[in-house]
Design a protein that fits this description.
mainly alpha, Serine Threonine Protein Phosphatase 5, Tetratricopeptide repeat, 2 domains, three-stranded mixed sheet, 16 helices, globular
């Protein structure tokens, strides 16, 4: 579904069912697909069914890629249909585990904010910002909502600007400033009889909507394909013509990092890495009616994995493990 498709034109229950069926066909993508299904169930107003999907993911025998995100979404959903105590307990536990992904921080902070827990929302946004952005020269795109949400809540609380708020201002690209967008007095102008005030508010809302649409409609990550050592060895043993693409595993890893740095230096946003497996690649080749030995199929495979939600953002967050799977921190491995 396109981000600008009107909600009334979507049968969210049917879309959730379709995504659940797709998850059964692609078990390796089930986490991303079931999270999307749960989102459609929430939009359909069937919050208990959404919670059941979150519980299904959390009880899965397979390890989740982002269990903190699933718990954050579950907490937010629970609170919306009367399970406040359970939601608060999950939020407290999440804050204690200090996830390195910005999304869970944003979700639980916004849940607190939406229920008028502004002080707790500010504390949660701030914890996430300090954890993920201290001594980071350039905040990754995924962390921008943390800064913007913190700015919004602090504006509502009447707090004076600090360095993090100033950073949020510099990252905001809309012609309407964050201070104006987050001005608590805007709520009064919505009830005004003054045409000039109403026209100004419409202009602000358009700018805000444009910012949200830009975020929602960002393309899939420019994804570079990564083969773990064992998978690459199996791939080359089965399809020797691909040896020209991959002289050695060490060269493969070095090429990935160099390519991503070159793309970043050229201003390409939203970079990511997708990890391939031989069975998945062979299935993709069969679906395309092509030979797995064809090198031109590799970038198409990477793009398809990214479109199915398999991309991991690059570069990793500060202190996070390197994308190559060495177990070392990125800054001590390929990020050195």
């Amino acid at each position: 579904m396109r981000p600008d498709t009107p909600a009334e034109n979507v049968d969210h229950t049917a879309e959730a069912a379709r995504l659940e069926r797709t998850a059964g066909l692609y078990p390796e993508d089930s986490e991303a697909l079931l999270l999307r299904a749960a989102a459609h169930l929430e939009l359909a107003g069937d919050r208990p069914a959404a919670t059941a999907l979150y519980d299904r993911l959390l009880s899965s025998r397979d390890s989740l890629e982002n269990p903190h995100l699933v718990r954050a979404l579950k907490a937010s959903n629970l609170w919306e249909y009367g399970h406040e105590a359970e939601a608060r307990a999950i939020i407290t536990g999440l804050r204690a585990t200090a996830p390195r992904d910005p999304a869970p921080w944003v979700i639980v902070a916004e849940a607190l904010e939406s229920h008028d827990e502004l002080e707790a929302a500010q504390e949660t946004f701030t914890e996430g910002v300090r954890l993920l952005l201290t001594d980071v020269p350039e905040p990754p795109y995924a962390t921008h909502p943390l800064l913007f949400g913190r700015h919004r809540v602090r504006r509502m609380l009447g707090a004076a600007h600090d360095d993090w708020d100033a950073l949020a201002d510099t990252l905001h690209s809309s012609p309407v400033s964050l201070d104006e967008l987050h001005d608590p007095k805007r709520v009064w102008s919505l009830g005004s009889d003054n045409p000039a005030e109403l026209a100004a508010e419409i202009s602000r809302l358009r700018a805000e909507l444009g910012t949200y649409r830009e975020a929602l409609s960002r393309p899939f990550p420019v994804a570079v394909l990564h083969w773990p050592a064992a998978e690459l060895a199996e791939l080359l043993a089965a399809y020797p013509p691909l040896s020209a693409e991959y002289p050695s595993h060490a060269d493969h890893l070095a090429t990935i990092e160099a390519s991503l740095r070159e793309l970043a230096a050229s201003g390409t946003p939203n970079l990511g890495i997708v990890t391939g497996t031989v069975p998945s690649y062979e299935a993709f080749a069969a679906s395309e009616g092509a030979s797995p030995a064809d090198p031109s199929l590799l970038p198409q495979y990477a793009t398809t994995l990214a479109a199915r939600g398999r991309a991991t953002a690059w570069p990793p967050q500060q202190g996070a493990a390197c994308w190559c799977g060495s177990g070392r921190a990125y800054g001590e491995c390929h990020g050195a």
